[in-house]
């Protein structure tokens, strides 16, 4: 990587102050990673490890107790139009139509634009997410998937430097989720959009992310690993599971969530342990370089992944 | 008022005036209108009663005056008129409430 990363997160901690005799609660500490331009990074972790808090800090809606977030060479100090957020609960304004919701964002970004220019710009992104014909419907008249599409159109219409997605598909049924994941992947690849997404879903992370950042269980969560997704960039849902890297990566992530994410909580280790930067793992390549034994059995994968620690 | 709407406004760097008029006001409008609809009924009632006591002007005074004139027909007509006006006011505000209400 020659150019400096677009987003630098350094030593980020969040502590909720002590309340009524209880000790102050450390949500996560010493979180450091970076996101390069055009990268799609996914954050995976169990509930309560502070994923949403971390995203809110990136969005500027929350403040960190320690550490800095630097976006394009500048420390962020509050919410900004260079970062667009897609909220978990779509967060559309229910008294505005689809067009109105997108236009509300576009007018905030470019207040000097004339009416027809705003309209054309909104229409372009509404068409892009496949909502043509639903421009004048209110959110209450739209299905869950369509509401989330409006949220995505609103975020993309801002043409942000960074797109922040907070479990955008978790409230949707499996079918809709699949379709929307494909759409988001297509949009992000074609616009080279830098994206940071939070999810619980491993398959979603493998399909969408170029890098998966793993967080241990909270409280006192920390970044354990960043897993590089070695699947080809133009991956599609109905083919990736045949790729030789798919199962090694998937097993590695699943093992982390099921066992290793907990170990850290049971034995937090020394202070220096906790300051160590997260390891970078390439489970797919490890498997390929390993001897050609029947390589997709989970025991082997665990062994192969284990050699990195 | 939902927190997420304010968060949307914050991430879009919406200024305080625009936030007040294009997020907070539309979000609060149904509650404001419902409050007005309830209180206008009470206000109308109190106005008529006050006019009866203070005297001099208004429909309340008219009712009192006609009662003293022993003109029961006028009293009944005035009472009906009071009822009609109260109903119209309530309906007008009801319409306005429906205009600004949004389904969630």
What descriptors fit this protein?
heterodimer, A: 309 residues, alpha/beta, four-stranded antiparallel beta sheet, 11 helices, 11 strands, B: 104 residues, mainly alpha, 4 helices
Question: How does this model look, in words?
Answer:
The complex is a heterodimer of chains A (309) and B (104). With 309 residues, chain A is an alpha/beta fold. Helices cover 39% and strands 20% of the residues of chain A. Chain A has one domain: P-loop containing nucleotide triphosphate hydrolases (Rossmann fold, 3-Layer(aba) Sandwich). Chain A has eleven helices and eleven strands. Chain A has a seven-stranded mixed β-sheet, sandwiched between helices. In chain A, strands 2-1-4-5 form a four-stranded antiparallel β-sheet, with helices on one face. Chain B has a domain at 32-100. Chain B is elongated. Chain A binds chain B through residues 59-61, 78-81, 83-85, 87, 89, 91, 93-95, 104-105, 108-109, 138, 140, 158, and chain B through 4-5, 7-8, 10-14, 18, 22-23, 26-27, 100, 102-104.
């Amino acid at each position: 990587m020659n150019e400096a990363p677009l987003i630098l997160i350094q030593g980020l901690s969040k502590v909720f102050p002590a309340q009524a005799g209880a000790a102050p609660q450390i949500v996560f500490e010493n979180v450091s990673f970076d996101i390069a331009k055009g990268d799609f990074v996914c954050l995976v972790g169990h509930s309560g490890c502070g994923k949403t808090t971390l995203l809110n800090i990136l969005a500027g809606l929350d403040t960190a107790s320690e550490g800095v977030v630097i976006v394009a060479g500048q420390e962020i100090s509050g919410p900004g139009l260079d970062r667009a957020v897609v909220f978990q609960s779509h967060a559309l304004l229910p008294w505005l139509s689809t067009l109105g919701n997108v236009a509300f964002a576009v007018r905030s970004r470019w207040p000097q634009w004339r009416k027809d220019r705003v309209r054309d710009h909104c229409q372009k992104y509404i068409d892009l997410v496949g909502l043509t014909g639903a421009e004048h419907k209110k959110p209450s008249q739209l299905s869950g998937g369509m509401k989330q599409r409006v949220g995505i159109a609103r975020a993309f219409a801002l043409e942000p430097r960074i797109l922040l997605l907070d479990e955008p598909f978790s409230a949707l049924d499996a079918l809709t989720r699949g379709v929307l994941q494909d759409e988001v992947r297509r949009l992000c690849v074609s616009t080279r959009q830098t994206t940071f997404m939070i999810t619980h879903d491993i398959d979603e992370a493998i399909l969408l992310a170029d890098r998966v950042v793993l967080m241990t269980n909270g409280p006192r969560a920390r970044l354990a690993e960043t897993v590089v997704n070695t699947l080809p960039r133009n991956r599609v849902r109905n083919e990736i599971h045949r790729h030789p890297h798919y199962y090694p990566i998937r097993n590695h992530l699943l093992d982390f969530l099921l066992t290793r994410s907990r170990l850290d909580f049971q034995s937090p280790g020394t202070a220096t342990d906790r300051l160590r930067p997260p390891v970078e793992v390439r489970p797919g390549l490890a498997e390929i370089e390993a001897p050609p034994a029947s390589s997709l059995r989970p025991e082997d994968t665990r062994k192969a992944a284990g050699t990195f620690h | 008022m939902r927190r997420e709407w304010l968060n949307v406004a914050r991430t879009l760097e919406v200024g305080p005036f625009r936030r007040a008029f294009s997020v907070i006001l539309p979000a609060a409008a149904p509650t404001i209108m419902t409050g007005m609809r309830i209180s206008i009924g009470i206000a109308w009632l109190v106005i008529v009663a006050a006019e009866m006591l203070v005297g001099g002007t208004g429909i309340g005074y008219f009712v009192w005056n006609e009662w003293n004139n022993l003109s029961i027909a006028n009293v009944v007509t005035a009472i009906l008129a009071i009822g009609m006006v109260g109903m119209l006011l309530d309906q007008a505000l009801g319409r306005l409430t429906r205009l600004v209400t949004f389904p969630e």
